[in-house]
Amino acid sequence: MKCPFCGASDTTVADTRVSEDGDIVRRRRRCLSCDKRFSTHERAEIRLPQVVKKNGSRVDFDREKLSASLWLALRKRPVAVETVDAAILRIEEKLLTLGAREIPSEEIGEMVMRELKKIDKVAYVRFASVYRNFEDVDEFSNLVREVSRPTRQMR
Asked: For 45, which DSSP code?
């Protein structure tokens, strides 16, 4: 760490303290050249990938937009807030574990559809009908038939 007073790069850590919530580490440092002291603060930097839209433009991942999309599909459905929050966290964790710097919006849409299918079938159909932009009634009927099939129980 460079000294903010003299610019020397030889500094030592005199004291380290973790914040109450554990999110920030405060380090008290001493410059070996000018003997002055200063503090630094460290925080984990979590960067979600940029979203590449269908038109090729790039935007920052927006948790609020993801939440709004889920809630729009779940409008007037009996689903707990905690269930939706957990789904959003699973999507964010998946994005982080991918380690990609960019992700196509279509991939995020598929993640949302998988989560909605687990949460509420009606919301899944709502979202899929808009997201997949069906051209005719047959495509929509196929989706409804797919969702209506009984799932196999594992033994």
From this structure: -
Residues in a beta bridge with 30: 12, 37
How far, in Å, CA of 47 to CA of 96, rounded?
A: 8
CB atoms within 10 A of CB 3: 20
Per-residue pLDDT reduced to its tens digit, 37-80: 999 999 877 789 999 999 999 999 999 999 999 999 999 999 99
Mean pLDDT to the nearest integer, 94-122: 93
**Size of the chain in residues:** 155
- Cα separation of 1 and 124, whole Å? 51
Q: How confident is the model at residue 155 (pLDDT cuts 50, 70, 90)?
A: very low
pTM for this predicted structure: 0.63
Cα 8 to its chain centre, rounded Å, is: 39
Residue 128 main-chain phi, psi, to 5 deg: -65, -35
Separation CA 71–CA 44 (nearest Å): 30
C-beta atoms surrounding 108 within 10 Å: 20
